[in-house]
Design a protein that fits this description.
Keywords: Membrane, Transmembrane, Transmembrane helix. The protein has about 230 residues and is mainly alpha-helical. The protein is about 45% helix and about 5% strand. Helix 3 packs antiparallel against helix 4. The longest helix has about 40 residues.
Length: about 230
Amino acid sequence: MTEIELNGISAGLSGLTAVPWKSGSLNNALATYFCPQKTLQADRPKLGKVFTARNLNRIAGIEIRWTTNLADHLRLVDDDQVVFIFHCASFLQLQKGLDNSPFPASFLQETLDTLALLFPSSDNETTSWLKSIAKIDPRLLKCGSLRTRERRLENFNYWHDQLVILKQAFDESSPRNISQWWFDRRNGVQWYTFWIAILVFAVTIFFGVVQSVEGALQVYLAYKSM
């Protein structure tokens, strides 16, 4: 057994998944483990711009746990409340440039595409968020962005099933606190309805307090005039 882990770059908690390697070459073991997996069906094949790591956290409440273990990339744990993300983009780029890399070139590119999907360099909020996080690969900021036609599940072969599961967890999530309600604008009508209700409630409370103060002041003035 072996873990595809970069111990020289540590951030967060590393996962525990190991790649089976009992016989044959390392290349064959990796090719067998990191093979195309497209067994799950997705109700919504499009991965919209809202589907980013930043929004996984602040909208769905899914914690991002950085890992240096490639075998744990996109793995959901803790009742779908935590997702591991392999952040070592420099390693993937380095392997792409090698003639004798043990990883298939298509697998390396697709893994980089998952990072571009979750951390689009064109999104200023994502960029600012990543810059505030210490001990992650700075090249994660430079993975680029996917175009609309590229953000579809059928374009992913190796990470397809993991993305389907992650997308389902994201789609099925609902706001649990005020912060999530503010950022969750996937359903525009629901979002406006909620905040209008909050506004009406706040205005009602405000005028209720004003009337109470006014009533108390009137009683006080009446008492003073006696």
